Amino acid sequence: MTHLSWQEDRVTTAEELRSMMTEPSEAVVKKTISIIDPHAANYLAMSPLFFLATSNAAGVGDVSPRGDEAGFVKVLNEKQIAFPDRPGNRRIDSLLNVIENPQIGMIFIIPGLDEVMRVNGRASITRNEAFISSMEWKGKTSGLAVIVEVEECFIHCPRAFKQAGLWGHEQWPSKEQLPSVQDLFKAHLEINGFPVRK
């Protein structure tokens, strides 16, 4: 792997960064709203997957996928949405981060649609059984749910998904070409000195 020196050309100030970019159009700036309007609610109702960005008190970031039946993220009102916490690997990285730093970001995806929806806000965790039951989520939860106070909501342009050709089956690698998740998992365990059966 080639190592190139880049330190002397680091961009370190907002002014320097802005000087290299043109200003966004007024429409791009003003497309951001602070509520979940009916159009955004319809998008969420059709989304089976979102990515949750969190960080701890020290600013160490994390992103994790959350997937379920389309519409599993419930719109409580125009300022609040909620989603269930499902039993998983018990690392609870995102939930631990929310306790330290409630500011989160979410990117919602609808299969086949290149535009994504971004929601930013502040999260809280509840274990209220009556509330969780009232959401009528199918399947088992961990006994917890996350409520998000929406601060920003906007649709994001399709460029990234179009350039990636994400939904074009003809561009997908064959199953034989895909990385072996099992090999990757074992290799990372070995790096950390965890014994792995051969």
TrEMBL record:
Domain Pyridoxamine 5'-phosphate oxidase N-terminal span(s) in chain numbering: 37-135
SUPFAM superfamilies for this protein: FMN-binding split barrel
Family matches, as InterPro entries: Pyridox_Oxase_FMN-dep (IPR024029), Pyridox_Oxase_N (IPR011576), Split_barrel_FMN-bd (IPR012349)
Gene3D superfamilies tied to this protein: Electron Transport, Fmn-binding Protein, Chain A
PANTHER family: FAD-BINDING, PUTATIVE (AFU_ORTHOLOGUE AFUA_6G07600)-RELATED
NCBIfam families referenced in this protein's UniProt entry, alphabetically: PPOX_FMN_DR2398
This protein's name: Pyridoxamine 5'-phosphate oxidase N-terminal domain-containing protein
